[in-house]
Amino acid sequence: MELTLDAAAPNPDEGRPVEVLDRSTKRPTDRELRLERNFALAVAVLPFLGVVAAAVWHAITWVDLGILVATYTMTGLGITVGYHRLFTHQSFTCPRWVEGVFAIAGSMAVQGPVIRWVADHRRHHQFSDKEGDPHSPNLVGGSMLGLWHSHMGWFFSEQKTRIRRFVPDLITNRMLSWIDQRYLWWVIASVAVPAALGGLLTWSVEGALTALLWGGLVRIFLIHHVTWSINSICHVFGARPFHSRDLSTDNLWLAIPSFGESWHNAHHAFPTSAVHGVGRWQLDLSAWVIGGLEAVGLAKNVRRPTAEQLEKRRV
Ligand SMILES: [Zn+2]
Ligand SMILES: [Zn+2]
C-alpha cells in the first residue's frame, strides 16, 4: 500500500474504479455497527448535556476556568500535535515516551482511539472532497446537509475505514497499539482528572463536581466542535491561497481555538509540514510547540516547506 502524504505526489486513487474505494472501507457487523453508533451518540450528546447542566447549575469559578484551560490545551495539543501532525502526517520525529504522552493526551480529547483517528484522517487526505472521503461536506446534497455530515453525521456512516490499509506503520507499533486498546481508560481519565483536581484544589465535593462539568464535559464539547469545524467549515467557507486538490480553506477566526489547524488550505497543500500557519502572522500554537520541542532536542526531522515550495503552490 502506498500513502499519498506528499502534496506534490499524484493521488493514486483519483479516477480509479469503485473497487479501489471498496478496499478503503468495510461494513462492520450489525452488532458492531449498533455499538459504534451508540458510542458515537453518547459522545455527541453527553458533553452537550454537560454544557446545559454547567450553564444552569453553577457559574464557572476561577478554579474551574483554570482546569478548563489547562485540560483544553493539553488534550487539544494531543490531537493537533500528536494525532494529526505526528502520527498521521509524520511531520517530525520524537522519542517514544513523547509519542506516548501525545497519544494519551489525544485520547483524552475523546475523539476516538489514536489508530482509528489516524486511519480516518489519512483516508480524508487520500480522497479529499472526492468519493471515498469519510467527511467531505461537498459530496452530500445540500450545503446544510453537507456541513452536518462533515461535522458529526459521518460518525453514523455504515462504511468504516479499513484500518490496515491506511496505518500499516502504526498497527505494528506496540506502544501505540497498547494505548489504542485502552481507549476507555483515557476517556474515564478525561473526566476523572479534572474532577480530582477540582476536589483537591477546593477541598470540596462541589468543587469536584463543577470541575467535572467545566473541565470535563464542557471542555470535551468545546474541543470536539472546534476539531469538527475544521472538517466542516474549513472545507466550505474561507480563503484558498494555495493550490490543493480539494476545497480546503483557511479561516483566521478559528486559528486560536484550533491551535493553528484552521490554516487548512495550507495544510492540504503541504500535508507533511509541521507548520500549518505558513504566513508570518498566522497564529499556529501547534507549530510553536513543535518548534519548542525541537529547540530542547525532543523533536527532530521537523518538516517545513521552503519559501520556493510555498511560492510554487500559491494561487
Ligand atoms: Zn481537510
Ligand atoms: Zn491532515
Question: What tags apply to this protein structure?
Answer:
315 residues, mainly alpha, two-stranded antiparallel sheet, 14 helices, 58% helix, disordered N terminus, binds zinc ion
Would you give an account of this structure?
With 315 residues, this protein is mainly alpha-helical. It has one domain. 58% of the residues lie in helices and 1% in strands. Strands 1-2 form a two-stranded antiparallel sheet. Helix 4 runs parallel beside helix 9 and helix 10 packs across helix 11. The longest helix has 28 residues. It is globular. 44% of the residues are buried. The N terminus is likely disordered. One zinc ion binds next to helix 12.
Summarize the structure.
This protein is mainly alpha-helical and 315 residues long.
Fold blueprint:
Elements: H1 18-22, E1 25-26, H2 30-57, H3 62-88, H4 96-107, H5 114-127, H6 143-151, E2 160-161, H7 163-166, H8 168-171, H9 174-181, H10 183-202, H11 205-232, H12 264-269, H13 285-295, H14 307-313
Antiparallel strand pairs: 1-2
Helix pairs in contact: 2-11, 3-4, 3-5, 3-10, 3-11, 4-9, 6-11, 10-11
The protein binds zinc ion (2 copies).
Helix percent reads 55-70%
Give the total of beta strands.
2
Whole-number count of domains: 1
Label the overall shape. globular
Return Rg in Å. Answer: 19 Å
